């Protein structure tokens, strides 16, 4: 049995899958409409009924537009063969794809990955708040690093005062004189400054603990399963409280206070009048107090330089949590949800593959049809009609090859043959009566007389 031509089989296959193609296109358009509805619902504000009907109308319009657009492409692209026209259709299809992505695909992605994108937004914000808390705590603790220097200076002044009082180590004379009074005064000032720094340490520790508690609550909100909207609201509340804690930590930075106190040590230095009973003792007291003044100035400069170092550290910028919708979050963190974007776009643009398949198949059918002989493509009915037409043309005297009437052939003259010579009988002198040579039949009547 002779096999059917390949072009015929391709044509029959295309006809066979036409219903399946329409069904698949309708399902894809419906799926895109459903996910578009889920995505657009989170963007609309108003009453529940308004949001519902508005989202339904928009998603229905998207489904109809997608089905109509791809139906046109499936019908026309495979039939166009000229290069310019096919390029124009491809350009039109590209514009339509961009419009479909703009009106549907990003909403599909919002429906597929909206909750995960919001969690990602909260996680990124949480990380920023954690860094801010650590930086603010580090800046506050940097001021605590001045405490050992202050305490050491206070102890040194107190020790010198005690040595002078008991042994006269500075002036050579025991007792509580002007030098002891000055050294005691400097020690008291340093001790007060150290007490201020120590007091701020407890406040810093308390604020850091509170901030850590807020961060723990925020982490729990990010990782806890459930609806994302209530968690986002609670997260925003915790973020506001944490921002207040970070601001309070920055206010407890005592570096500026230490700098001012260090400047007061030098600028506000007041030396008591020497109270020695003799001029020699008074002179020695003045010399020691001058030395103390120089030492206080050096200590003040060192503390001021250390405080400037701490103050030069950049302060923590106030961070603010900005709530986002699911669609905005998907757009903001698109690089983290490429699989979701791929799935959302594929739902809308999968018919591109069907268009290309039909285009290739139709090109193959046209190519195969051009290479087939007419005898391989003619049907039985066409053959019968052709034979009947052939007989009619033969009967009508029409040349089948040219379709014109056949010319009438003129008779060709033949050379005349000489007539056979008849031998003349010799004439008799008498009258000769001809005798009927024909044999008379028995049935004939008597010959007449």
UniProtKB/TrEMBL annotation:
Transmembrane segments: 20-38, 50-74, 86-107, 341-361
Keyword set, alphabetical order: Membrane, Transmembrane, Transmembrane helix
Annotated stretches, region: Disordered: 401-449
UniProt biased composition (Basic and acidic residues): 438-449
Signal peptide: none
Listed Pro residues bias regions: 408-417
Listed name of the protein: DUF4407 domain-containing protein
Biological source species: Devosia litorisediminis
């Amino acid at each position: 049995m002779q096999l059917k031509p390949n072009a015929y089989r391709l044509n029959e296959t295309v006809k066979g899958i036409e219903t399946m193609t329409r069904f698949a296109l309708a399902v894809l358009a419906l799926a895109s409409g459903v996910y578009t509805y889920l995505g657009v619902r989170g963007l609309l504000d108003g009453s529940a009924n308004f949001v519902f009907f508005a989202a339904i109308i928009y998603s229905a319009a998207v489904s109809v537009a997608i089905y109509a657009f791809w139906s046109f492409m499936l019908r026309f692209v495979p039939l166009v063969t000229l290069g310019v026209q096919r390029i124009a259709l491809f350009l039109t299809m590209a514009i339509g794809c961009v419009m479909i992505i703009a009106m549907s695909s990003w909403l599909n992605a919002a429906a597929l990955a909206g909750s995960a994108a919001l969690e990602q937004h909260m996680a990124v914000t949480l990380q920023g708040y954690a860094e801010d808390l650590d930086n603010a705590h580090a800046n506050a603790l940097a001021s605590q690093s001045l405490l050992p220097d202050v305490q050491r200076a206070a102890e040194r002044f107190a020790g010198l005062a005690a040595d002078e009082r008991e042994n006269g180590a500075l002036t050579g004379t025991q007792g509580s004189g002007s030098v002891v009074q000055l050294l005691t005064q400097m020690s008291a000032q340093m001790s007060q400054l150290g007490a201020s720094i120590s007091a701020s340490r407890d406040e810093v520790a308390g604020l850091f603990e509170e901030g850590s508690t807020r961060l723990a609550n925020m982490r729990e909100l990010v990782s806890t399963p459930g609806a994302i909207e209530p968690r986002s609201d609670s997260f925003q509340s915790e973020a506001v409280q944490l921002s207040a804690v970070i601001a309070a930590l920055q206010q407890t930075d005592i570096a500026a206070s230490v700098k001012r106190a260090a400047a007061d040590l030098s600028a506000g230095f007041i030396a008591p009048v020497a109270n020695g009973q003799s001029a020699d003792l008074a002179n020695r007291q003045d010399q020691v107090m001058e030395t103390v003044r120089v030492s206080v100035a050096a200590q003040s400069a060192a503390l001021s330089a250390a405080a400037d170092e701490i103050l030069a550290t950049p302060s923590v910028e106030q961070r603010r949590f900005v709530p986002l919708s699911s669609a905005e979050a998907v757009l903001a963190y698109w690089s983290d949800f490429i699989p979701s974007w791929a799935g959302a776009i594929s739902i809308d643009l999968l018919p591109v593959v069907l268009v290309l398949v039909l285009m290739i198949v139709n090109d193959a059918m046209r190519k195969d049809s051009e290479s087939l002989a007419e005898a391989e493509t003619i049907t039985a009915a066409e053959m019968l009609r052709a034979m009947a037409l052939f007989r009619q043309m033969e009967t009508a005297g029409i040349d089948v090859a040219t379709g014109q009437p056949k010319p009438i052939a003129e008779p060709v003259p033949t050379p005349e043959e000489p007539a056979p010579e008849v031998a003349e009988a010799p004439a008799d002198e008498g009258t000769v009566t001809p005798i009927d040579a024909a044999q008379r039949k028995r049935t004939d009547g008597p010959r007449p007389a």
